[in-house]
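Handout, page 2. Input:
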Amino acid sequence: MPAEVATVFSVDSAFPGADIRQMVRLLMRPSASTVVLKQGKAAPVFAVERIALIAKDWPHWSSLPWVVAGRLDEAPIPSTADFSLMQEFKPCDVDAQVVKLLDHFDWAVFFYFTTFHDIFYTVATRQPQLCASIVAVLPQNAIVSCVQGPSFSSKLNHATFYDYEEEGWLPYELATALGEGLPLLLTRIEGQATDGYYRWNNDTDSREDFIWYEQPLAKLERVAQFDVGLTRYQLHRASNLEAYLHLWSMASHSWAIADATLSADTDIERLRAVIAERGCFDIIRNAGAVAAWAYGHIYGGGSDEHHAVFCARDAARTQKVWEFAGVHAISRF
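Output:
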């Protein structure tokens, strides 16, 4: 394979026209051969419809990851090619995986876990003409990131990680480490009735007689408030660390109100407009439009199961969060 700089696209399949099948068809057209890599083995395919027969649940993510890859020339894949690394898409190994794939193929499309209810796929190639085709066929907003390397993982703007029992701490630490102003806490309170925000006290086997968030919220400096339908959004400066962390500590409960932590430079009017347009704050798709960085939680996968998501305009900030997250890091995209 040629030694040109590789380009890696992260693509949001939720956008119309960003369907994975369409992308693979596009890449298969000029290719002399296409294979599905699964569990370290390569199986040739000649049509997109055949891929699902080899990789169960394709094109969706599953616990047994898959790769679809192709060559533009007719040279055979070396019998000594080792694809054992492809058995698990550990995001910390994404650089090595891309390099290994592009040592044998001109393009590759694959998944690894990103969030519980968003589907992103990765397209990697060293061929400039394929890059041009990919950009031309995809809707502009479908490309979450486009980076070049030999090194990719440190250039990606999004990160997911677990921070159970430490929710909210990491973005606060980031702001402190970077010498930024105090971050802003976005809260979301649903409906006009407040019944759902009275917690149950297991010790007394009764409902508490106060709304749990009122006291900690009163300790923070309120910056803005606006309603979208029956949902009230408030933006507070994290001026009291204990109160700020207490509000995030309820993230696993139905009465949680913490929606996101945003950088101090947040454009409040833009935030208001984005939420009004979408009916919510979508951290992955809206963060870059309103703030230098944003942190929040995405739910799904099981009872009380959720993970943190961090998004930044500057990938260096995401890299620092990635390092903070350490063994609890899940994926970069």
